[in-house]
Protein: Carboxylesterase
Organism: Vanrija pseudolonga
Amino acid sequence: MPTSTPTPTLTLPQGTYAGGQHYGAEYFRGVPYAGGVQRFRPPTRLTVDPRPSPIDARQQGPTPIAPPSRLSMVMGADRDSGPQSEEHSAVLSVYRPPGAAALPIFFWIHGGAFVSGSSQSSFYDGSRLARDANAVVVAVNYRLGALGFLYDPDTRHQPRPAESFGTLDLVAALEWVASHAAALGGDSGNITAFGQSAGGFLCAELLVLRPQLVARAIIQSSTASVLASVDDALAIRALAATFLPSGATFDTMSPEQAIAVHSQTAGALPAHNLDFGLGMPFFPVLPPSAGPGGGRPNHNPDVPGASDPRRVPVFVTYTANDGDVFRRMASQAGLSDAEIDALPPTALRSNPGWAAASVDYAHFLRQRGHAVSLAEWVWRPAGSAFGAVHTIDVPLLLGTQEAWAGTPMLGSESWDEVDAKGKVVRQAWGAFARGVWPASIDGVLDVLEEATAK
């Protein structure tokens, strides 16, 4: 007689969650890490989940208010990222091997140009990484677009300009994970923050804002060496205000209006500011006092209030064709080839621009005393027209077979081939969480600079 698989449970002070199993790992989705979120306010501490335990954590939790991803041309459509909610999207998902105890923790921050994406998407399912890295994987939601990264010069509710509300959400989530690490099956002293694109940028922010909680970091295809200045942010705020409906303010606009304001601001941005953030109007911002040049172009300097000068190992990566998809976006936005070619060499519409941003940031971290290794993703799936495109690293690490089915950037590569290559990467990430630097992986990842500190 067949026996049923016991339901995995996650017991926390705030409540007990009933999860599921697949890919050899347990999963718990939509677990709150903060109380109800109020617009343009820091997240509040959650003491008790008001739902009766055990709470069903098998389905995707709510996702932040956001427009569709601009990267669907390469990633495909996101079919199942959960219902959108402004107030209740401060959730995360946990993936772990059965019987997990004191394992390394991966803290995943998704990309999406600070305006789209969700940890609840099956693109970011962490089960395969949890299984092959023998680690706990936590994927985190954070507020997006104007609701998460609109610059506000009024600091009554925003502790420091560097801490946008989207960033504050991540800080709260990281603190929650550290506080509940043992219950999650992990080690609070061994948290690896990792993220891709905007998520990599936000990992760099956490290295500054909460270094005492991050043991290591992996920053993939990030623009972390390029920051918006206060002047940029104020200009974009003024531009966005022109798209508010009559009588509405940023505080009173509906979620649907917030998405429309973002889309209209992004559409107006190329003419407003060609050399920075094409179609990406909302960014984390550092104040002029944080460094030379008012923050742009600049590196990620220490922000007043960072409580620990801890220097940690950082693995920085970019893809060989990171810039190609953004060049396509620039063309779709109406820029001619001549206008695109006239952009500065460091503009993020070119492959050299993306490479330069990653190399620049790796060298900066090394100068600051971090041990840093730099690598380039070179995997070009069979039959793909996109090559080693922006986000090509994600299916090697995260996501389900169903989520990635029919993804344009994977071309004709079979899932078995994708998963086999990815297993080597996932095992390398697990080794890095235990102190072993990743080595080159033939046809997938080339390590360009070995780990050294200045």
